[in-house]
Amino acid sequence: MNLKELDDILRTQLAIADFDDISLNGVQVACSPDRQITRVAVAVDACQATIDAAIQEKADMLFVHHGLFWGRPIAVDGIHYNRVKALLDADVALYACHLPLDAHPVLGNNAQMAMCLGMKEFDPFGMYHGQSIGYKGRLPFPMTCQEIAKLLGFSELYGMNILPFGKEEVETVGIISGGAADDVFQAMEAGLDCFVTGECRHELYHTLRESGMDMVCGGHYQSEVFGVKAVARYLEKEHGIQTVFIDRKTGL
């Protein structure tokens, strides 16, 4: 299929039009109209390292969570010029999906983490711009914060922090990937035992301690590999497109 056909599929599957997002979701850099998309590289971030790797992997398109265009005009110069030029020179398309890939009930970062934790049922949670982008639910059995982190593949080497100020074993969890530390207050209001997110904030430490709340911060990057990997599996299974995951950890 060509880029237009794949764009139509992804826009429908990920409900891109339903979200008010600062990210330019969808095609950010196009390839030739007649180029067939048979191999897609997926990564968390659009940066020179992932663009170069996608080109080396002979991908026709790079699908990312964090793209190059974020709601305001930006001059195509400096490192931005280098990134766009590399894509254009190699005729590789760039496709970005931000909030829709956090919120998707199957392929999204948060739903995928819920499934990794064995949560068979989970409900929308975490309002952002008038929409729920996270999920909450009950674990299949009580777990420690360390067990939650292990199931999700979080590592201290790449940005994980655990603030274990609540129950030793938790039963209910709210999940919002990325930089959603402040949404722990929504988890408190919902009466949840634990909040799982990406980044932590210094200002929350004493509030969490005094409130008796557990929070597992996996690192922004580590909490957002789930969605792009799920999209890769979807493209392979449903559309016969080859995929490759490009892992460029930030440690944050």
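^ that was protein a. below is b, sequence first then the tokens
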Amino acid sequence: MQNLIEKIKSNQGTLLDVRSKMEYDGEHIHGAINMPLDILETKLHEIQELPKPLIVYCMSGGRSSIATNLLQQNGITETYNGGGIFTLNNIINNN
């Protein structure tokens, strides 16, 4: 995970927030892109064009796990489950 975080910090990857727009608007990790899980499948082409690796997160890790599996099944292989926002944010800010 450390190598992934370093890539994200140096703008060589993408943070993907799969929570609702309302959740994202309330709080998100700086630089993250919001694509709610319920519309993710319709955005596969856009996601394919994003800088890799992708670290997907949500509130607790459940939706990000589903999203990561969906993306990988659709050929977006450099995709990783970052888990919940608070844990991931702590990892990013402490490295």
